[in-house]
Amino acid sequence: MTITLASASSGAVTTSSAYAAAGSARHTPLTQLDLLEAEGIHVIREVAGELERPVLLFSGGKDSVVMLHLAVKAFWPAPIPFPVLHIDTGHNFPEVLAFRDRTVEQLGLRLVVEHVQDWIDDGRLRERADGTRNPLQTQPLLHAIGQGRFDGVFGGGRRDEEKARAKERIISLRDDFGQWDPRNQRPELWNLLNPRHRTGQHVRAFPLSNWTELDVWRYIEREGIELPALYYAHEREVFERDGMWLAVGPHSTPRDHEQVSVRTVRYRTVGDMSCTGAVDSPAATVAEVVAEVAASTLTERGATRADDRISEAAMEDRKKEGYF
Amino acid sequence: MTHQSTMLRLATAGSVDDGKSTLVGRLLHDSKAILADQWDAVERISRDRGLTGADLALLTDGLRAEREQGITIDVAYRYFATEKRSFVLADCPGHVQYTRNTVTGASTADVVVLLVDARKGVVEQTRRHLAVAALLRVPHVILAVNKIDLVDDAEARFLEVAAGAAEVALGLGLADLRAIPVSALHGDNVVDRSATTSWYSGPSLLEVLESLPVGEVSDGEARLPVQLVIRPQGAVRPGADPDFRGYAGRLDSGVLRRGDEVQVLPSGRRTRVAGLWLGDRNIEEAAAPQSVTVELDDDIDVSRGDVISAVTAAPAVREFTATLTWLADTPLRPGARLLLKHGTRTVPVIIRALTGRLDLDALEQHATDVLSLNDIGAVELVAAEPLPVLPYAVSRHGGAFLLLDPSDGNTLAAGLVAG
């Protein structure tokens, strides 16, 4: 090995080394999507191999659909060896729920649903003043995890979504109260995943940690993955609130001063109808969506999620309590 | 931008207040990876705090405590792409007590960007981070000599700091070190070359990152730790063979082709690859780091934890020596009974002896009978079952392992097989 010192005229220090002697590559180079797919499948298999009772969070949203697609690949030709779980806020888009049920049926999966509405009806939870139910999902989620005695929970969270998520490990330990402690996370070394934990604790596993929104859409395009139709441009009755287009529906009714109009929109994220906004978009095909996302100047959450605008640390606070 | 581009994994390291988060923010901002709403938020908070300009560190310091204390606590991952390449960036904190996060970031990095403050030069933390990079055999290290705008006679100071780091790097056997004078605050030589450092004619940080060669993990012997045995039996998917029996795993290194002769470690039984699957796609060959399912010719006993490897691979061993980075608050003493995870196999292990601790100031090995948090030391260990380990110098995956606490599963140490 040699290290040549920086000289002012030649600029950066350069060295030669044994590492430079890379060998011969002869197979087709793997693309970024190939690498992300390989990592996601590895995470799913490793959690399935180490833990007794994993479960996969499946809402019908694009990230959970891609995660489920990876799970199908991970175990093929055997079926996915664990159930899927959905925390239904009661404010979900009907067409997304229909898609969820159809997908579960096609793959022969067992679907566990925990209804936030039940918790509100019997008084365990109270409706918030702003009407959004996203933060209300935490208790029902932790309850469902406890009831199912699930020790590993796959989530479709991505680190590019949000600043607090950017800090979370691929395998993330939750204490007996379901809480995330961002200051005391396990080091995640090489590709050696460690989902071991004490009884009462569980882990969250995020196979899509290193994917960006654009990666997800390119993968959907490459693999021909079906999504709920509202991800593509369609006409919808909407009104403006907090700078977003909210759909007119049973859970999001316009107030007196809010004008309703019919616009060509699509959804970049799909969550609670009361706080998930649509964006103006003519993108009706997956190729058009890929092009649109590549050129977008707003993050998907910035463009579409009212609940993340509550404060700078809204997501961190929800996550610490046990949220997705 | 093409998604065919290669992906480069980089980790940042540096001491507190060297301006690491600012550099990362600058890199993201100047390479146009920051979207309008993220930038609006940074400007709004900066204004609320009475700052005159936007505080770039706010782009990565995402946790409440980080914003309150103005420091980075935990590794943050960021993604950005230029026309030439896409990047996964692990922003690692600089506190002494958080060296384990640097180990975390460096373990998967192709390049470590190490910051030093031009006014302070090479400090203990710099030596520690260079040692970690050398230990984990990170292929490239870039020394970003930051705050170059704040020193008199910047050229001489830059050369002095770069020479100091190069001397340490030489002592550690680091493969590749390049130094660049930067100002993260003003953006000098981060993305664009700076006119204020006219004495420096080298490339900017981003230019170096875009042009670094990435090692091919598909080089080397084929090695696939088995994660799961796939046996659909009665529940087979339509069109598939009901008697299917395959071994699912991710190639650590090398290439597997249908028909290749392989051995299964630790047993050493030999057979051939009968089929390779990626999902429902039957493929001719698979290369690291792909996740595939392998069918074998003979009906031999293979289970999770075994390694399907080239016939030339070394046999499994129970006793070996290793270097540890101790990551736990409770110190390690000889005789400790722990769990060891290597590939997909976890086995009980006894630490038979501590043979030395690395003194990062003198860069010498000293005798010791204890390893404390953040210590790097040499050990002899004996495992309950034979493990197909390789020297870390030969294989970054075959030579890496974790030590785990048997009671709660916590990760205690990063281990590197010696030899």
From TrEMBL, chain A:
It comes from Phycicoccus elongatus Lp2. Keywords: ATP-binding, Nucleotide-binding, Nucleotidyltransferase, Transferase. GO terms for molecular function: ATP binding; sulfate adenylyltransferase (ATP) activity. It is an enzyme of class 2 (transferase). Pfam families: PAPS_reduct (PF01507). InterPro entries: PAPS_reduct_dom (IPR002500), Rossmann-like_a/b/a_fold (IPR014729), SO4_adenylTrfase_ssu (IPR011784), Sulfate_adenylyltrnsfr_sub2 (IPR050128). This is Sulfate adenylyltransferase subunit 2. Residues 54-277 form the Phosphoadenosine phosphosulphate reductase domain. Belongs to the PAPS reductase family. CysD subfamily. Its EC number is 2.7.7.4. Transmembrane segments: none annotated. The gene is cysD. The keyword ATP-binding applies. GO terms for biological process: sulfate assimilation.
TrEMBL record, chain B:
Residues 5-218 form the Tr-type G domain. Pfam families: GTP-eEF1A_C, GTP_EFTU. One of its GO terms (molecular function) is ATP binding. Its EC number is 2.7.7.4. Keywords: ATP-binding, GTP-binding, Nucleotide-binding, Nucleotidyltransferase, Transferase. It is an enzyme of class 2 (transferase). InterPro entries: CysN_GTP-bd, CysN_II, CysN_NoDQ_III, G_TR_CS, GTP-eEF1A_C, P-loop_NTPase, SO4_adenylTrfase_lsu, T_Tr_GTP-bd_dom. One of its GO terms (biological process) is sulfur compound metabolic process. This is sulfate adenylyltransferase. It comes from Phycicoccus elongatus Lp2. The gene is cysN.
